[in-house]
Amino acid sequence: MATRKLGLPMRVPSADGLPERVTIWEVGPRDGLQNEATTVPVEVKLEFLDRLAAAGLSVLEATSFVHPKWVPQLADAERLLAGLTRRDGVRYPVLVPNQKGLGRALAAGVRDVAVFASATEAFARRNLNSGLDAQFDMFTPVVTRATAEGLAVRGYLSMCFGDPWEGPVPVEQVVRAGRRLLDLGCGQLSLGDTIGVATAGHVEALLRAFADAGVDPSVLAVHFHDTYGQALANTLAALRRGVSTVDSSAGGLGGCPYAESATGNLATEDLVWLLDGLGIEHGVDLDALVATSAWMAERLGRPSPSRVVRALTG
Amino acid sequence: MATRKLGLPMRVPSADGLPERVTIWEVGPRDGLQNEATTVPVEVKLEFLDRLAAAGLSVLEATSFVHPKWVPQLADAERLLAGLTRRDGVRYPVLVPNQKGLGRALAAGVRDVAVFASATEAFARRNLNSGLDAQFDMFTPVVTRATAEGLAVRGYLSMCFGDPWEGPVPVEQVVRAGRRLLDLGCGQLSLGDTIGVATAGHVEALLRAFADAGVDPSVLAVHFHDTYGQALANTLAALRRGVSTVDSSAGGLGGCPYAESATGNLATEDLVWLLDGLGIEHGVDLDALVATSAWMAERLGRPSPSRVVRALTG
């Protein structure tokens, strides 16, 4: 297919109040790799991060300081950060689950962290061994110390649309939990559709509820999974509501195209293709990114779930 | 994953002028199967059509009367139509490429046909052995006879966004070609993104241009391919512009999940999931449809490219 040579997609900026620029929050090295069956050597991760930065991505969620027992794929967090060549203008946030994780991150010289909360009681109990309210007791000292140390803190809020145990999640409940994370001191809130059940109308309703609660869309990010094929349509709905930070995963890392259920993150390449078509700036060199994802797919021994990667490397 | 039992996705109708009801124009039996490597026996096609109708799809593009040399997968068009049990309230349109094809269709008792035109010079020359203008000389007697016989006629317009030889296609050129098909007597015009390069802003721009040219969105349909993962986001953009007929293919037929480049149609199940979430009526029983696509995937010896099918049958 010769389409890339022809400079497609055609740039046709939409008039409907879309942001001029979007920040892509690249989660492949953390959220992607922690969900891959294959554990990647630290040298490969370092090359991956460097290639992603070279491709123009300005936020790379590098790793997680969760206990290695839970996420063995990221057990090398200290070694990774010690080996990282930081590029100017690039942020390398890491996930910290608790005070111990924050301590490890600070010792490794991290300046940018993210905490992970649940919007539902059931997921808080299962994933965090905590209740919906009690989880904030766990985060408060983490966020307080991080902000006191001058770190940027992002709050992830998971199960914002549906929960496998509770079903659809009322938007008011999500807004309440999100407001608490922001009030604690999180500078950004990433709204996660952890099981991929969101649809465009639900996304709009949730973002409208946040606006009604006085939360500016500039502090919000969206984090969609493509379980039911809705991730990019949901992203489009969020952009129309003024959101300008979008989480995605290079090559769709974390979702396996051979698996019966492909539950991976939105692929960064598919997002870039949409943004290019809408004339929205993002700073990413698509060819360099596709080459990087194709290279990583070889390391993982399976094709990329990203449609753009498959179309451009076919 | 227990999500289906919980009745997800949550229905959150959007306020932004979406249609209340969408007609799904199911192209799997024709556009899907003609692009599959495996040729399916006529008995399987008949069962497929009957199961799709039983699942609530009201328009089933059944086959094509193109010369068997070009599309051997559909060489059984006469046998298929002779064996078809037509259900009340279900339309079974067929593709007719020329006068000879129309003659065969009429002899087979068809009441609903579609013609296939190109929006670009290059594709008209390659696919139709004709020029952009000259192709209308070919269609005029076909559409004239079909309407005189009281048939409903749909006009497909391909390469409406990009063309592999010409690159991006100007919207004015597409509107001009589309107007000619409507003026000839086509009751509906399906705008095709044959190579999957459309993005949401481009879709909006094209539909705006049709509106400016006095074409009501009620006579338009959209036909997207998921080559670059944009099909559902493009559909959402079209719904917002008032389009209420959407082409899709059960189980994403025509696109192979193992191929390096997945160029298939939008999967009907992924579309239904979006429409369900938006509270838009469509009449389809998703579980019955998913079961049908899973059954057909077995006949074809490969998994379905539809994310919804994979998620719900995993």
TrEMBL record, chains A, B:
Which CDD domains does this one have? DRE_TIM_HMGL (cd07938)
GO annotation, biological process: ketone body biosynthetic process; L-leucine catabolic process
Tell me which family the UniProt entry assigns to this protein: Belongs to the HMG-CoA lyase family.
Q: Which InterPro entries match?
A: Aldolase_TIM (IPR013785), HMGL (IPR043594), PYR_CT (IPR000891)
NCBIfam families, sorted: PRK05692.1 (NF004283)
Q: What is a GO molecular function of this protein?
A: hydroxymethylglutaryl-CoA lyase activity
- Residue ranges of every copy of the Pyruvate carboxyltransferase domain listed in the record: 22-290
Q: Which organism is it from?
A: Amycolatopsis arida
**Key word Metal-binding present in the record?**
yes
Annotated keywords? Lyase, Metal-binding
A Pfam family annotated for this chain is: HMGL-like
Name of the protein described by the UniProt record? Hydroxymethylglutaryl-CoA lyase
Does Glycosyltransferase count among this protein's keywords? no
Q: Which SUPFAM superfamilies does this one have?
A: Aldolase (SSF51569)
Query: Which PROSITE patterns does this chain map to?
Result: PYR_CT
What does the record give as the organism's lineage?
Bacteria, Bacillati, Actinomycetota, Actinomycetes, Pseudonocardiales
Q: Which domain of life is it from?
A: Bacteria
